[in-house]
Amino acid sequence: MNTDERECIFCHIARGDHPADILYQDDQVVAFKDINPQAPWHILIIPREHRDSLNDAAPQDEALLGHMLRIASKVANHIGIAKEGYRVVINTGPRAGQSIFHLHLHLLGGRLLRWPPG
Ligand code: AMP
Ligand code: ZN
């Protein structure tokens, strides 16, 4: 484990070393409620293995990225927002507002989501 991962809050959540309101987990990903929700439903889906951002996704991560998306739809269905609609977002880099540098997918729903986002 490198220094980044020892100090990374989402690595701590993935290992169960930091509390989180977890809705789903498996051997590859963990889905938990965002601590500062921007919609009635705001869930983060993270890989258990640390990647700084989408920029660090390698060809061998393609199955993992697909899994993250499929789990987003599975969680959306589970919490009852799949039919009315939801959004998945991956902020990448400082200009997109990425503040936690452990790859994560936002699942947002439960209200009207306008387009384009700010
Ligand atoms: P981003 O700005 O795309 O990097 O998103 C980071 C998200 O992580 C923000 O929406 C934060 O509210 C959320 N967040 C930060 N710390 C925690 C935490 N300990 N538990 C749950 N969500 C968190
Ligand atoms: Zn991490």
Description:
By secondary structure, this protein is of the alpha+beta class. It has a single domain, classed as HIT family, subunit A (2-Layer Sandwich). Helices cover 25% and strands 21% of the residues. It contains three helices and five strands; from the N terminus they run ααβββαββ. It has helices at residues 3-7, 9-15, 62-79; strands at residues 22-25, 29-33, 41-47, 86-89, 105-109. A five-stranded antiparallel beta sheet has the order 1-2-3-5-4, with helices on both faces. β2 (29-33) and β3 form a beta hairpin. The longest helix has 18 residues, at 62-79. The protein is globular, with a radius of gyration of 14 Å. The termini are far apart. The mean pLDDT is 96. Adenosine monophosphate (AMP) binds next to loops. Zinc ion binds at residues 5, 8, 10-11, 50, 102.
The helicity comes to 25-40%
Strand content: 15-25%
Number of helices, counting only DSSP H or I runs of 4 residues or more: 3
Q: Quickly give the CATH architecture.
A: 2-Layer Sandwich
Tell me, rounded to a whole number, the average pLDDT.
96
Number of strands: 5
Please write the CATH class name. Answer: Alpha Beta
CATH topological fold name: HIT family, subunit A
Name of the CATH superfamily = HIT-like
> Ligands in the structure?
adenosine monophosphate, zinc ion
Helix-strand sequence: HHEEEHEE
Q: What is the makeup of the main sheet?
A: 5 strands, antiparallel
Q: Which sequence of strands runs across the widest sheet? A: 1-2-3-5-4
Tally of distinct domains: 1
Alpha-beta content class: alpha+beta
Radius of gyration: 14 Å
